[in-house]
Design brief:
Layout lengths: L6 H4 L34 E10 L2 E11 L4 E5 L6 H9 L4 E8 L2 E2 L5 H7 L1 E4 L11 H8 L8 H10 L1 H5 L10 H13 L5 E5 L7 H16 L3 E5 L3 H7 L2 E6 L2 E6 L1 H6 L1 H7 L3
Parallel strand pairs: 3-8, 3-9, 6-7, 7-8
Antiparallel strand pairs: 1-2, 1-4, 4-5, 9-10
Helix pairs in contact: 4-7
Length: 275
Amino acid sequence: MTRSPNPYQDDRGNKDRSITRAGGAGLDFPERGGSALPDPGGPFLAAEAMTGGYGAADILHDCTLRVEKGQIAVIVGPNGAGKSTAMKAVFGMLKLRGGHVTLDGEDITALSPQDRVAKGMGFVPQVANVFPSMSVEENLEMGAFLRRDDFRTTMEQVFDLFPILRDKRRQAAGELSGGQRQQVAVGRALMTQPKLLMLDEPTAGVSPIVMDELFDRIIEVARTGISILMVEQNARQALEIADQGYVLVQGANRYTDTGAALLADPDVRRTFLGG
């Protein structure tokens, strides 16, 4: 397998892409062919100069986020920096007063969140991201609501990615641990067969061991060619797996670089990573 531009990714995650499809052929998405490199036609996701907020107050100020095909892009920054707001703006949950969003070259700025899902976006919010009274299997089925094809193969791929969910498929999602509920939420988003998967603080409230396991699964998903945009409170660990990193402060881009470069930047380390 061709090595990633990010050395931290190479020793993590299952490198056998067959983990997500019986028979060893990978997910039903274009596989990542070697390194995640910039597309000469432009980034897969381009959220340019986003300005907007709630009511009359702007929270985002000319915020720009870009993700290449099969790349992991991470948004970090202090509390109140607008990280989750930026994610919601990309997903269409926040009306922009300035800027635009394109996905795979198509301007989707005016589309609703539902229409963005149909275009290939999957979004996992930080909280209230499972149906607690429904079983694990029923939660995954809800992720396939817009599909008209047979989604059983995709569900088996999700169970291969998160084996504990196969064991607990009949159990109510609300009875699971925090880490297992996050797996259900990510799995439900994958049931939509997304081209871009957006995760809002996926490791919030989980143990360090569970955090590492979730990050390994995220790396595996990206290796199949799915682009990842993630807001994360565990900044240092998230930048270790990131191809691209964005540090937001007060709704604006403060630093933009590769994950490795941000980890090595003394100003970023001192101000945002605890030295």
